[in-house]
Structure formats: C-alpha cells, structure tokens
Write a structure and sequence with these properties.
The protein is α/β, with parallel strands linked by helices. It folds into two domains: about 5-160, Rossmann fold; about 185-265, Alpha-Beta Plaits (2-Layer Sandwich), CATH 3.30.70. The chain has helices at about 5-20, 30-40, 60-70, 95-110, 130-140, 145, 150-160, 185-200, 225-235, 240-245; strands at about 20-25, 45-50, 75-80, 115-120, 210-215, 215-220, 250.
Amino acid sequence: MDTLALKYKSLLKLLNETRGAVIAFSGGVDSTLLLHAAKEALGERAVAASLATPYVPKWEQGEARKFAKQMGVKHAVLEMDFPEELRMNPPDHCYTCKKILFNKLLGVSQEHGFDHVLEGTNIDDLSDYRPGIKALRELGIRSPFVETDLTKAEIRELSKKFNLPTWNKPSFACLLSRMPADVKVTDGALRQVEQAEVFLMKIGFPAVRVRHHGEIARIEVPADRLQDFINANDIHNINHKLKEFGYKHVSLDLGGYQMGSLNMK
C-alpha cells in the first residue's frame, strides 16, 4: 500500500472513531473530499453543514448544495445576516468570522448528538497567514487532514481518484478577502465584486480575484495568463462590462494573482 493510500486509511479510521460528526462544507476542494470520506466512514452519521452569508458567493453556495445532494448526505444550510463585528473588515476578520460561524456549527453538532465538528484545513495551510485557524483551535474544531498529514496536492489526487467534481477546482476565499482592511464593507460592494468575478469566470478565468478599491477594480489572474486577459478584453470588452457593474476604473495587476494580496504590507 502506497503512502497516500495509508494516509487515506488513517483518515477513515479517524473519522470512524468520531462515531458521528458535522462537516463544515463549503463545496471547495478540501471540504468536498472530507465529506466524501466522512460518508464512507460514517454513513448517515455524517452531516454536512454550510453557512450562507452575504460574503460567500451565491454560486459557491449553490455548488455546495448540489454536491451534497449528489453525495446523498444530510445537509444543513444556515442562513446568516452580515455580522456587524465584520462590517469594518478588521485585519483579523478570519478569526472573528470563524468564531461566529463555527459556534453555530457546534450548535448543529449538539442538535444531532455529536461530539465533533470537522473542517478541511490541510498541512499546507499551516504555513500561510490564517488567523482563522486560531479560532478553530480555541473552539475545539478538528482538522482531520492536518491530523493525518495530508497536503493540498494529495487532497486533489484523492479527489481525482474518487471522481469528485472539485479535484481541479481553483481555491477560493470569501469576498471579504477582496476588500481592504478597516474599510466599511457594503452589501453593494460585495455584489459588485461577485458580479465581476462571475463574469470573468464565465469568459475563461476560473482563478480570478477582483480586489475592490472603491471605484477601482484591481484584477488579479495567474501571471502566465496576463496576455490572455488582455486579449480577452478585446473580445469581451471587460473594461466596459465591469464599468456596467459600477466601477469607474478597471485595472489589471501586472504582478499576477497573489494569495491574500490585500494583507500584504
């Protein structure tokens, strides 16, 4: 048995030992594999739970619902208003957000009589700036991929093996990551970013970020696709389309996509 197969076997063993758990489910690469494994290990004692907030794109919420249905698991969707603690987008918004959201998932876990809430942080995430992980640890949320030493590449490999639709899905983050810190986040700005990103994904840029700087949209795509983006503007008139969404100026970041670029000093 190869190393990856052994890791997956350890993951199933860990999940089985929980005797039942709520899985925080976004419909992304990590949480989809975790839910798949939880269903294999726990059957009906695996419950997916998703949080529908104004700063999670509607399309991503829709994919979570679709994937949970395809996997045949119980799926709780918790609708939430915008937490006022996050309205000014503090630099540690991930910490505050995770505290609020995962407290709700702990409630779902109690309703089902489970002792565990599980989420999809992997080993690679630990080397990135992720204040939300501190909140998870404080709340006692478990990260099975960390406990079994699984990397992002291994999660994608396993997802492909199990024919999961997310195996090559780009990584996403909530829409607050598109906004500068310590600036009031409006519902209009969130929808503006979401409209722009959905349009850009539809014309061939699945890994895109529209950083919102008031009247300016600063677009990040992978560095090797900068010329593709310029060519696409000639075909799809990106500049005009984003101005229709409310931006006055549309810029392309020549540095390419950088994770958490608005966190950089």
